[in-house]
């Protein structure tokens, strides 16, 4: 603990009095640690730690969820997806409230088992998330999946959305804490663009409070020296080149696509769809899914919060109409959503 | 009747011969207090003390059998502990069963056997009972209701609590919630976490004699956090808990991290939170530590008038809110 106290002291000494410093994290698990450790209460007043787009469930388009609900109503289908996804609200309810044949899974391998034991049904794996969950989905495709298993891909790319954020002057990011799990897949090299092209210190950190504090300290050190680098304080897990095997498989099965981010809009090259070669596994094509027009949730500012332009506490619905029990927007549902995390800790 | 083929039939709830059979061959085989034996409509009980505590609770836990216990053991512990933390010596229990048609009688016997053992350990007599049977798929195996009566030995009230009091926990937190989560096999995790389900009578009663004892509560559903947030809400006092002092098993902490749970919100079935004057806190902890169920007892925080709400001082020195549980991540935990 003395080491942690030492890091906090150094952080205070490196933050200049006359300037606001804004550091963004882009990972729900990072935000979880930051909030649950009460880290913000230990920071200098003019150092902000902003939660960014770290919640995959929060940005999953309403259209995909409604399509998933409708698919689950077919008698010949079992929809399988991660737990958080089941509760995300849409204009048509959530998968849990409106869906019919659906099951929660914790890993894509379970989807295979469900497919094998239900050969008379079509199993649709609603596969969502950033690079961390894309890799295992590519993994099962490589292993060979049963004939009756299809993929509804709603995967998103972290570096692409981060680049959008950097270019947005309204947000004004001085440093990035790069996500530990995503970095394990894409490698620290994926973040070089931020330090080299945009001059923003970018530090890969792990999930313990002490390690995250070390990451913040490293960003401040770079800011003080006026030299942006991509550094790594999570060296045991993250390598510069990342997991090459996973990258290879992701590239084999998926291609970059222009996709919609809920509450934000279409972002070119920010998502992954199955390659045409595997279209016979692509639920969008096999089941001829059509896009449903997204509705705006009255009062909900999830999209703005995801982009780091507002804190959850700035939303008029927060803690009033919108609670984990009565979530209005996706950010209050997921354990990785900023609103849900802030609700529990603030 | 202990035959792996016998199953609960609708007739077992008829009140007629089959019911009588079930009572004699399963319930009375294990439960045989003097008060119960006459099988009258009501039991005569003898309460020497006029000040009596009474509580009731229903049990719908899923799965029925889990590491460290089953619904039967739980139905005794839960009600006994509600009496014990109210400063009462648990004396008599009633027990009501709702059984699903087709439920194996062998499993019912296992449950009743646990009930018998646990009530003996807890020092209570089961003096009256009831059985109903519902059609297949109309309930999930077995539901149990128990009502408990106890003699008040040390009247306790939230009004006794004042700034400066200490917050004590009798042992590691989150064991029951974690054990149930794992027992449901919804996660691909194997770990030797056992529910803490236990009657607290023996552990807690010696503490009744300590003057500084103010209030107690067993942190079941919603965990420690919910109890303390409620305490703060009702008394208007602040509660500060020091994360580094809260006993949590390593495997419970690890699994919580993996599943996104917070041990402070996980259910316990064999723990008590004790609020006591700061002068008496060390004595109470040393009394608790003498009992096997209290070996990890610790002072984990204090009551303050400087702020309202319950908050946690984290291991890195930060602060965060402790609130009442909002989302029930594990329904049917008890």
What's the architecture of the largest domain in chain A, going by CATH? 3-Layer(aba) Sandwich
- Structural class of chain B, by secondary structure, is alpha+beta
Annotation, overall tally of beta strands of chain A: 11
* CA radius of gyration of chain A: 20 Å
CATH fold-level label of the largest domain in chain B: Phosphoribosyl-aminoimidazole Synthetase, Chain A, domain 2
Strand/helix succession of chain B: HEEEHEHEEEHHEHEHEHEEE
Write down the oligomeric state: heterodimer
Q: What is the class of the largest domain in chain B in the CATH system?
A: Alpha Beta
| β-strand number of chain B | 13
Strand content of chain A: 15-25%
Query: How do the strands line up in the largest sheet of chain B?
Result: 8-10-7-11-9-12-13
How many domains make up the 3D coordinates of chain A? 2
Output the radius of gyration of chain B.
Answer: 21 Å
Helix content of chain A: 25-40%
Largest sheet of chain B: 7 strands, mixed
Task: Give keywords.
heterodimer; A: 346 residues; alpha/beta; Rossmann fold; 2 domains; 6-stranded mixed sheet; 5-stranded parallel sheet; 11 strands; 39% helix; globular; B: 334 residues; alpha+beta; 60s Ribosomal Protein L30, Chain: A; Phosphoribosyl-aminoimidazole Synthetase, Chain A, domain 2; 4-stranded mixed sheet; 8 helices
What would you note in describing this structure?
The complex is a heterodimer of chains A (346) and B (334). Chain A has a 6-stranded mixed sheet with strand order 4-3-5-6-11-10, sandwiched between helices. A 5-stranded parallel sheet of chain A has the order 2-1-7-8-9. In chain A, helix 1 (2-14) runs parallel beside helix 12, helix 2 (28-36) packs parallel to helix 16 and helix 8 crosses helix 13 (244-253). The longest helix of chain A has 17 residues, at 209-225. Chain A has 16 helices and 11 strands. Chain A has 2 domains: 1-296, HypD, alpha/beta domain 2 (Rossmann fold); 302-345, no CATH class. The model of chain A has no long low-confidence stretch (mean pLDDT 95). Chain A has helices at residues 2-14, 28-36, 56-59, 62-72, 83-86, 95-98, 108-117, 131-143, 158-167, 180-186, 192-196, 209-225, 244-253, 283-286, 302-306, 338-345; strands at 21-25, 47-51, 77-82, 102-105, 122-129, 149-156, 175-178, 202-204, 230-232, 254-261, 265-274. Helix content of chain A is 39%, strand content 18%. Chain A is of the alpha/beta class and 346 residues long. Chain B has 334 residues and is of the alpha+beta class. Chain B has 2 domains: 10-152, 2-Layer Sandwich (60s Ribosomal Protein L30, Chain: A), CATH 3.30.1330; 158-322, PurM-like C-terminal domain (Phosphoribosyl-aminoimidazole Synthetase, Chain A, domain 2, Alpha-Beta Complex). Chain B has 8 helices and 13 strands. In chain B, helix 2 (71-84) runs parallel beside helix 3 (105-122). Chain B is globular, with a radius of gyration of 21 Å. The model of chain B has no long low-confidence stretch (mean pLDDT 93). The interface between A and B is medium-sized, with 28 and 19 residues.
